[in-house]
């Protein structure tokens, strides 16, 4: 069992930066691949980025490549999403999620994840 808690969301102007954190409970955090998703009002949950349990393999959506960076610190049981050059269209609730395997063909599907956090709101003003 893994419990996830996101933090770090807030209101930022376009072009600004935020770093989201996802703190995990349990001693098996370092055996899970991690993903970040987002959901804007009236839209489906959208894949943002994912990384393997070791952090050596990552995968990001085209819409955030070059702007967002996913990372993790297994010693702190925490995953991160560094978001730079934010745009108004990045406004959404951001969720972290955990799953046992890192498989690019399925990492983008929310249904493939076993555990979810409660989400943190990110609002980017123009």
Beta fraction? over 45%
C-alpha Rg (nearest Å):
13 Å
Helix content: under 10%
Going by helix content, strand content and strand pairing, the class is mainly beta
Helical region count? 1
Flag low-confidence runs.
none
The arrangement of helices and strands along the chain is EEEEEEEEEHEE
Mean pLDDT: 95
Tell me the span between the first and last alpha carbons. 40 Å
DSSP strand tally: 11
- Largest beta-sheet characterization: 7 strands, mixed
Overall morphology? globular
Which helices and strands occur, and which strands form pairs?
Blueprint: E1 4-7, E2 10-13, E3 18-24, E4 33-39, E5 46-51, E6 58-60, E7 68-73, E8 78-83, E9 92-99, H1 104-107, E10 115-116, E11 120-125
Parallel strand pairs: 2-11
Antiparallel strand pairs: 1-3, 3-8, 4-5, 4-9, 5-6, 7-8, 9-10, 9-11
Give structural notes.
The protein is mostly beta strands and 126 residues long. Helices cover 3% and strands 47% of the residues. The strands form two sheets. Strands 2, 4, 5, 6, 9, 10 and 11 form a seven-stranded mixed β-sheet that branches. Strands 1-3-8-7 form a four-stranded antiparallel β-sheet, with no helix packed on it. Strand 5 and strand 6 (58-60) form a beta hairpin. The longest helix is centred in the last third of the chain and has 4 residues, at 104-107. The chain is globular and about 40 Å long.
């Amino acid at each position: 069992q893994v419990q996830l808690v996101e933090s770090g969301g807030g209101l930022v102007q376009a072009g600004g930066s935020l770093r989201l954190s996802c703190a995990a409970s349990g001693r098996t955090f370092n055996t899970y691949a991690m993903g970040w998703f987002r959901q804007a009002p009236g839209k489906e949950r959208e894949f943002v980025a994912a990384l393997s349990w070791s952090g050596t393999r990552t995968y990001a959506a085209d819409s955030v490549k070059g702007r967002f960076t996913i990372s993790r610190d297994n010693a702190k049981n925490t995953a991160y999403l560094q978001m730079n050059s934010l745009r108004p269209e990045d406004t959404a609730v951001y969720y972290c999620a955990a799953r046992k395997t890192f498989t690019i063909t399925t990492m983008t599907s929310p249904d493939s994840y076993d555990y979810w956090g409660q989400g943190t709101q990110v609002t980017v003003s123009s």
